[in-house]
């Protein structure tokens, strides 16, 4: 049966010994979005994506991806493309060898798409992968994932080590692939500039828990920055406060004359600061950078 959800988690929990990486996570992400998964280092982002790819299993709770248990079989594996944080490639193999291997492993492999995209980013099919730059390796890994023609592309901090120019090219390619395939995507990143550039849906994960999730326009419309003591305005949820500047959530309860729009950075840092139990200033937390 067709499901409207990319990811559907209920009380999803993952523990590694005594350390808890995810705690009672409830999440419903609809199809048709490029999802930005953000949070500080160690928040559980990679764990959530590894669970979604079927690389690990949950300790408790449930998770479905495209309506099925992650990696439930070969057919489901073919519906998901994954690019890991270190964009792994086989250094001794040529780019052409990587494409041949992709065609052997994936029944829906699109050789024309793979060769065209390799040419568009200026890569030589005869070149050994071990001689590629970081940006070139990332483009190769993404091309292999996309040439499967998946319904969902998952990226785990794929551009973290790239220089600004290579990162811009990678993000442009990501959007182009999603559009060409008619796919959805989940992008984990601690760089808000990446999320602002390509994502239309946001999930903030801090302290092993989902803090907030939703379409970016709706989240920005329902959060405000106000001046004054939070106790002075009833019927709203205070997310973060420092001195007389407060970030709140509530559509109808905030008088227009008191409210100012928030930026995506202010929204994310408000939830991160609340989760950390600290009044960090926007821009002061290096874990989420522009």
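^ Assign residues to that structure.
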């Amino acid at each position: 049966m067709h499901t409207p959800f990319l990811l559907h988690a209920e009380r999803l929990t993952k523990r590694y010994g005594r350390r808890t990486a995810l705690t009672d996570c409830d999440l419903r992400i609809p199809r048709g979005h490029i999802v930005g998964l953000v949070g500080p280092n160690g928040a559980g982002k990679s764990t959530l994506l590894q669970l979604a790819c079927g690389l690990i299993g949950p300790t408790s709770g449930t998770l479905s991806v495209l309506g099925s248990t992650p990696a439930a079989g070969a057919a489901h594996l073919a519906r998901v493309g994954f690019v890991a944080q270190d964009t792994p490639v086989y250094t001794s193999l040529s780019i052409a060898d990587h494409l041949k291997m992709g065609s052997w492993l994936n029944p829906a492999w699109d050789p024309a798409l793979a060769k065209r995209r390799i040419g568009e980013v200026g890569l030589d099919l005869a070149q050994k992968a071990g001689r590629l730059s970081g940006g070139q390796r990332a483009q190769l890994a993404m091309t292999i994932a996309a040439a499967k023609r998946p319904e969902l592309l998952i990226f785990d901090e794929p551009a973290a080590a790239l220089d600004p120019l290579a990162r811009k090219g990678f993000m442009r390619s990501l959007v182009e692939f999603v559009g060409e395939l008619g796919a959805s995507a989940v992008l984990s990143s601690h760089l808000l500039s990446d999320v602002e550039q390509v994502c239309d849906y946001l999930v903030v994960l801090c302290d092993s828990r989902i803090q907030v999730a939703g379409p970016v326009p709706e989240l920005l419309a329902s959060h405000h920055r106000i001046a004054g003591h939070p106790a002075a305005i009833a019927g709203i949820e205070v997310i973060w406060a420092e001195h007389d500047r407060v970030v709140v959530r509530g559509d109808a309860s905030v008088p227009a004359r008191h409210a100012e729009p928030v930026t995506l950075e202010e929204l994310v840092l408000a939830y991160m600061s609340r989760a950390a139990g600290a009044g960090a200033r926007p821009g002061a937390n290096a874990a989420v950078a522009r």
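The radius of gyration is 20 Å.
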